[in-house]
Amino acid sequence: MNKPDLVRTYHGSCHCGAVRYEADIDLSAGTGKCNCSYCGKVREWGVIVKPQAFRLLSGQDDLTNYQFGTRCMDHWFCRRCGLHSFGQGYLEELGGAYYSVNVACLDDAPLDVLIDAPVRYFNGRDNDWMSVPAETRHL
Question: Which CATH architecture has domain 8-122?
Answer without folding.
Answer: Beta Complex (2.170)
